[in-house]
Amino acid sequence: MFLLAGTDSRCARQIWTITRSKSVCKPASKDFYVTLGIDRFAQGFSLANNTNLGLYEELKRWPERQDRWNSAMSAMALQIDFEFIVQSLPWTSYPPGTIVADVGGGNGTVSIGLAERLPNLQFIVQDTSETVSGVQAPETLRGRIRFQAHDFFTEQTLAGAQVYYFRNVFHNWPDKQCIHIFRNHVPVMRHTTKLLIDDFALHHPLTVSPFEEFRKR
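Given the sequence above, the corresponding structure tokens read:
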């Protein structure tokens, strides 16, 4: 079941929670990409850049471009509205030691910010092995934040998390891949488990200035 948990009109962000429903949840097929006959990395970025690779695979080919990308993402991280995230769920109602999985969480910027504000929670940041290799949380939080290599296009292996949090993940992938990511989490979901989606929400076409239309789409 989808539930809108919060909207931040200043940056057109929305947070949605998903809980398990017997009628719609089923695990992903093991041969998902073969069955659909699609390129796992096909997306708008691929068309715009004349490549059959996705954003992250293409950036690996151009280290200088990847450095610029990483610098831009770090700058954006400084503007994260943690209070908006904190207000999206009754985080403080969870018992001490509750685990939050930060799926595709990069170097843990969001988990660090939330851990500083929510002392009752434990965080496991999941991302590619290249991303999390050698990354450590601040010394004061090392007992509450761990990093784990995980590809979200494979079945989720972390069972027992109460919340699986996705920030700025789904807008990077076509719909079919997004569905696959969701289904990879079905086997570890209980009826109390929540998938928390924190991402940009597009406006209706032709309702903003041409500049904003181009920038957001």
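The domain at 2-37+81-216 is CATH 3.40.50.150 (Rossmann fold). Try to locate this feature in the token string yourself.
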